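Notes from the 1:1 (GR / supervisor)

We went over the backlog. Supervisor wanted to see one worked example end to end before approving the batch request, so GR pasted a single chain during the call. The sequence is below; no edits were made to it. Supervisor asked that the structure be written out right there so they could see what the output format looks like.
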Amino acid sequence: MFKVPRFLSYRSLRVLRIATLFCFSSLLAFAQEFEVASIRQSSQTVQAQTSAGVNVDGAMVRYSALDLKLYLGMAYRLKNYQIVAPDWMTSTRWDISAKLPEGSSSKQIPEMMQALLRDRFQMKMHRETREIPVFGLVIGKEGLKLKESPAGPAENGGEPAAQSVNAAMGNGGTTVTYGNGAYFTLGNNRFEGKKLTVAFIAEAFSRFADRPVVDMLGLKGNYDFSMEFSPEDFRAMMIHAAIAAGAVFPPEVLKLLDASSGDTLFNAVEKLGLKLESRRAPIEMLMIDEAQKTPTDN
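Structure output shown during the call:
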C-alpha cells in the first residue's frame, strides 16, 4: 500500500496533482498547434480569374487567397452567418502554409488553426446564442425531387485521397471542388451541385437569401441538384448574394432587381421538391471582440 512521505502533506500532494494536470494540459495544448506556420498577404486580387483553396497533403497544410472570416469559419466549424466580425476581415486575402507536428492528425487542423489565428492576429472573442430569423429548408408539398448521388470509391471503402478544396472564379462563373467528385458551380444562369450533403446545400442557399437557411430535413447521404434561371433572375440572385456578404451598391445597380421575376430562390427550390419556411431558431454565434489587422511576424 502506498504511503504518503512525512515530508509531503496531503495539501502539498493536492498542489502537486494540480500542477501535474496543468502540465499535462499544456502538453495537450501544444499538440494542438502547428509545428511551424507562415501567414502572408495573398498576391491574388479579386478579378476576372481568381483561384483559392485548401490543400492538405501529408504533414503540409496550404491555404490560398482566403479572408479571415473564412479562416474563422473553418477553424471553429461555423457557417459565415454565425461569425460577427469587423468588415475589414473580409477585405484582405491571406495565404497560410503550415506543418503538422509529428504524430498529429488532420482532424486536429481546426483546433490548430484556432490557436494560430488567436496568436498571430491577437484575437479576443466570445460565444453567445441568439434567436434570429431563419429559413427552414423542409420538404415541399410535391415531395423530395433531389437526386441522391451514387456512392463513389471513398464511400465504398476505397482509399481516400489527400484532402483538397479548391475554388476558381473566371468568366464562366465560380466552381468549388471538394474531391471525390463533389463540387458546386455557379455561372451562366445556372447553379449546379454534385455529391453534396443537404446541410451544405442549405448553406449554399443562404448566400442568396436575406437570412440563414437551416437544414431541417435531417437527410443523410449526398445529393445532386441543378437550377436554371433567366439572365435577369440570375443577375438578381448575384446582387442579393453580394448584399448578404456586405457589399453596398449604388441605386442604379439596385434598380436591376426590378427586372427580376421576384422570389427567384423560392421558385427554384420548389422545383427540387423543397420549401423555405420562415422560422426563428437559436443560433450559436462567435463574436470577434478584438483583432489586429496584420499578423505578428512569422
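Supervisor's comment: The radius of gyration is 23 Å.
Batch request approved.
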